[in-house]
Amino acid sequence: MPYNYSKRYFWGAALCCLGIAFLFDTLDIIDIGELISKYWPLILIFIGLKLVLARHEHHPQKFHQAEKIEYSEETNTVNYSHTFGDIRLKFKSSEFTGGYISNVFGNIEVDLDEIELKSGSYYLNLRGVFGDLIVIAPKKVEVKIIASTTFGSTRVKDRISSGLGDRIRYISEGYADAEAKLNIDANQVFGDIRIF
């Protein structure tokens, strides 16, 4: 997946500007409360323009193995939280059991294409605040996916939705009768979700 440097710089610049604005408010140079009360609609306009003008990639590319990951070989469970920077994970487990991945500032990219499951129902929870969430779902495993964004667009397989508070529910064809199933719950506050 090509890295989007413009997003990284935009959010970095936005956080710096926000910090400077709060500093000026503390020094009584500007009044943030008054500024926000007059110009808050600009936030909605900005988000709307982002949704209208955003270009989405339709095909995921190769993922990189994560440099830092909490992954237990014994249980095949992932529990990973990150605050700043992108998370890129590729799993090849023959006995994957799910887990939890979260990130505050940055993208989450997860490749589950090569996983296998033992009999049972397993859960993978993905949570992000600022950034995009991209998942390559496993092809050999039946899945149920619930994906929701607060401010962004959502794409799960061939279903696309954009607007405020998007939610898509997807259930693979053989899910109900499968002995091994994976439930993916993906939530993103500011950003897009793409699950292929």
Reported for the largest beta sheet, the result is: 12 strands, mixed
Question: How much of the residues is beta strand, in percent?
Answer: 35-45%
- Calculate the mean pLDDT score and round it: 81
Overall outline: elongated
Supply the number of helical segments.
3
Q: What number of domains?
A: 2
The portion of residues assigned to helices is 10-25%
Radius of gyration: 19 Å
Report low-confidence residues grouped into runs of 5 or more. Answer: 55-75
State the secondary-structure class: alpha/beta
Order of helices and strands: HHHEEEEEEEEEEEE
- In angstroms, what separates the terminal alpha carbons? 13 Å
Total number of β-strand segments? 12
Oligomeric form:
single chain
Keywords:
single chain, 196 residues, alpha/beta, 2 domains, twelve-stranded mixed beta sheet, 22% helix, 41% strand, elongated
Layout: helices, strands, pairs:
Blueprint: H1 5-26, H2 32-39, H3 41-53, E1 71-72, E2 77-84, E3 87-90, E4 98-105, E5 108-111, E6 120-130, E7 133-136, E8 142-156, E9 159-164, E10 167-171, E11 180-190, E12 193-195
Parallel strand pairs: 2-4, 3-5, 4-6, 5-7, 6-11, 7-12, 8-11, 8-12
Antiparallel strand pairs: 1-2, 8-9, 8-10
